[in-house]
Amino acid sequence: MGIALFAITQLQAQKLTKDNIDEIVKALSLEEKAKILVGSRNEMFGGGAAIGATQALVPGAAGTTQGIERLGITRTVLSDGPAGLRISPTRPNDTNTYYATGFPVGTCLASSWNTELVTNVGKAIGNEVLEYGVDVLLAPGMNIHRNPLCGRNFEYYSEDPVVAGKIAAAYVNGIQSNGVGTSIKHFAANSQETNRTGNDARVSQRALREIYLKGFEIAVKESNPWTVMSSYNKLNGSFTQESYDLLTTILRDEWGFKGIVMTDWIGQRNTAAQVHAGNDLMQPGQPVQSEEIVSKVKSGELKEADVDACVKRMLEFIVKTPRFSGYKYSNKPDLKGHAAITRQSATEGMVLLKNENGALPIASGIKNIALFGITSYDFIAGGTGSGDVNKAYVVDLMEGLSNAGYSVQKDIQDLYEKYKAYQNAKINSEQTRSWFMGKPTLPEMPIAKTFIEKQAKGSEIAIITIGRNAGEGRDRKIPDDFNISNDERNLLNDICDAFHAEHKKVIVILNIGGVIETASWKNLPDAILCAWQPGQEGGNSVADVLKGVANPSGRLTMTFPVACMDHPSSRNFPINYMGPAFDGFGYSRSTNQKDVDYTNYDEDIYVGYRYFKSANKVVSYPFGFGLSYTTFTYSGAKIAQAGNDYTAIVTVKNTGKVAGKQVVQLYVTAPSGKLEKPACELKAFTKTKELQPGESQVITLKFTGYDLASYDEESQSWVTDAGVYNAKFGTSVDDVFATVNFNAKALVVKAHDALKPAEKINKLSLK
Ligand code: BGC
Q1: % of residues, the chain, pLDDT over 70
Q2: pLDDT tens per residue across span 93-116
Q3: How far is the CA of 114 from the centre of ligand 1 (A)?
Q4: Which amino acids bring their CB within 6 angstroms of ligand 1?
Q5: In CATH, what is the architecture of 346-564?
Q6: CATH topology (fold) of 630-750
Q7: What's the gap in Å between 648 CA and the centre of ligand 1?
Q8: Which ligand 1 atom minimizes the distance to the CA of 185?
Q9: What is the pTM of this model?
Q10: What does the alpha-carbon distance between residue 667 and residue 113 come to, in Å, rounded to a whole number?
Q11: In what order do the strands lie in the sheet with 200-202?
């Protein structure tokens, strides 16, 4: 009796440490375990109220986990992501501000093809996460750009899984080097925003493995993210959050993932099925979910062992967090230093699409700019929704150019400022703007030809910005969003006519988060710079490139097709869906509508360039493309082999007049075998250091036999056929400067028969 009492007291006194997790799991009551698996409501909506907490730990954070005080289990804080930390910039009765740095969006970062740079950006973001008292950044977003119209493509990286996976791993490594966590999201096949909480993505096992899961596999293996976020959508008939195949068989058993899985912010679904599947944390969390866990364990519908497995992983996560170790955060990250990082990193993601007649960099004598396009005066730093960072300021293009010493025609500026004020007032009065949706892109202003002609005489060069914004909860449309509007086309035509008549150049800046149509108008201007949504220093970053202070070294991580319909996925995408503008969190219907309630991924593995190259279809700008202010030559391309490890080697030399970086991309064509293969696939890439004129660098790109494998559904295994492979060293998928054949050995890696589609998919074949 005495001994038993002693033991209980001991147990009660015991507090969580990293070494007693198993004992703590035993010491927890079922009710306490159920609390640990369920978040404490959304901090954005008053944080923690549902669990009786008096105040949010970090106002504006997306969520928290619940603590169990008696056992020293602390609450933790989760916050968006990905272009910086998203928290409330101000707090009631507090004169301090809590702004975070707005970094370039995902497409821009990925377009740098520079993993070192992405790691450095991650380090800076992670420092803000740590210093503002947050434990996990809900980022990176890394879904594949299946179709250009997905509203959240700006947060994601690429149509190619190797780019998405390597960039995500670099970002995660940077963030986590601060001792805070990340959540790679949205796992998986969350390729559209329309009905994102109800849509069933129907995908072949092969396309899943090779395209939609591959990037996550790379990120898990190369960066050990603390957490994974399961997506809102269904995948082959079941919610990803409830899929044992996805969260346990593939993620943990096959890839060796050791962290926790949390749901996207859905609220209650089948909580018991989620726990069984290996989804450890339900966000944002409702008490009823904990009650469900308890009652289902009591009724035998859920095994307590399943609950324990999740609890154990939660505790392993909690002991790693700064909040658990009592880190004294400063609320004062180095915002100035980080502004310099975002300014520089954005220039590396910008893609110079066209540069004729030496239009860029702007000739040194030119000072006086005619700046057109409403977005020049209302610059878009990042997309909308949870990916929107509350930053202290945005440097627009007008400001960036004047910081760089240019003067901008005052009468044009006045015109746009008046128009902007009018449009903003209209938006505010219509109250169409919610805190979440952000401000819509302002429509372009029609301008009289005579006014433009006058400007062509009075200024030295014209710049036109074309802008697009999009974000969470809705997909883009083809008219006036993917395609340019009539007002934009007239502006382009009239400005190019008027300025060219005066022998003056016209530069177009694309301030976009995702792909737009370029084929019909790209012949008009002298230069086109795709600046993406480059973060809060955007105007300065663009000016740095225009002036030649920075040499653009971004390359496209997705194809710019001639028309949106050229993507085979456009045949199965909610292109004409005219339902609710914002599908937000609670779309529920059962009409079984194609592309809304379910989407067939009939294009199968033919996503992006895999299709365009294999089908020999003309594009506007190919995957991997981008120009530079300097020129490069290449020599000595070869492939070295050691067992199943391959190293591609080539020497890159800067043969131009200014310093610059080059991206080398390695595409591989497989020998013909049992499975149909794309014309080529990216297997590795790297970026040179900044090469001075005349300077060379030997670069190496590594890949393995496993990287060459395709997924064979018949044998449920990754198969690398033996034979002669053709390696193409390129600066885009269309610009190959050297090809080398190499022999690969046969390799078979057994996998599980997981995520089988319930419905028939009419897989595209190009044979
Ligand atoms: C988004 C996630 C985000 C979460 C928390 C969801 O609606 O899909 O990307 O992390 O909200 O804000």
Answers
A1: 93
A2: 999 999 999 999 999 999 999 999
A3: 26
A4: 62, 80-81, 138, 185, 264-265, 386, 472
A5: 3-Layer(aba) Sandwich (3.40)
A6: Immunoglobulin-like (2.60.40)
A7: 39
A8: 9
A9: 0.96
A10: 15
A11: 238-239, 234-235, 200-202, 598-600
